[in-house]
Predict the structure.
Amino acid sequence: MNMQYRIKEKLAQSPLSVAELVSALGVASRSYVSKQLSMMLADGVIERQRDGKKMIYSLRNGETLLNLVFESTEFGEDELLMRVRRNRLFNGDVGEAARSIFEYAFPEMLNNAIEHSRSKKIWVKVEIIDDRLCFMVRDYGIGVFRNVKEEFKLNTEMDAIAEIMKGRNTTAPKAHSGMGIFFTSKIADRFEIRSYAVNFLVDNTLPDTFVRSIDGEVQGTEVVFEIGIDSKKSIREIFQSFSIDPEEGDFDRTEILVKLYKYGTIYVSRSQARAMLLRLDKFKKIVLDFSGVEDIGQAFADEVFRVYKLAHPRISVEYRNASPAVEFMIKLAKNGLEI
């Protein structure tokens, strides 16, 4: 595959420095990558912007609606949203549903950077690339996963991702609901957070969720969001899907991706189950998604479907996408309720 094409593939996912590109491409020659970038700059395929002491490269195959580095105290999220709203391309090329989705997600992610990151500078970029409305919010602070890890006294940043995706968990409960990242990840076509050595990606076009370690650390947090400009998604319907009674509008139903709680090769322990169920008593219904989980241990199943149910009789615990082996263990645990 042509090297410039491979570079474009990587930059389509996120702006990167030369060092990050070399790592992402898995090549040994930094000078070769730098030469290709120089040629792409000359051709107007990409653009670059200084990010501290390094240069960050990004694709220029679309239309830029906003590209700004600013002091965290300089602007509020509403001011920058208004700048995008006034752009003729935003109003002319982007459909109504996509505009509504953007107007929810962009200020939510920008507010996180302004109020929670402890970063002095923030970089925002909004673009239309092909048929997608994309934005990037980049800060240089503590890092979202490290912040949650410290606040909730978790063991790892991977645990922090799982905690965030429960919904309604926040490091600042007096000021925030904890729903921002949760719902933003649900309404996006593609949603990604890179922070230090951790990469979290939700691809709703598949659909699937990925968590992995990254070689080139990202100091702070970088959020990338994409939605098709002709999207027909409804914010109202997505919010209602997490409410037992859609007319009431309560966020009282959540979905848990069980594979985020994997330690080792199998889900076997009660401690794993307790970590997954911790701080879920604010919901009335919990739906456990076992996609990508081949097997679970008896203790794990018993803690979730018998012990937790006995302790929380008013909370409904349901499941989906269970393999035959998982289904067997769940039924075994549920049968224990009837003894």
In short: The beta strands are 46-51, 54-59, 62-71, 121-129, 132-139, 190-203, 208-228, 253-257, 285-289, 316-320. The longest strand covers residues 208-228. Residues 96-116 form the longest helix (21 residues).
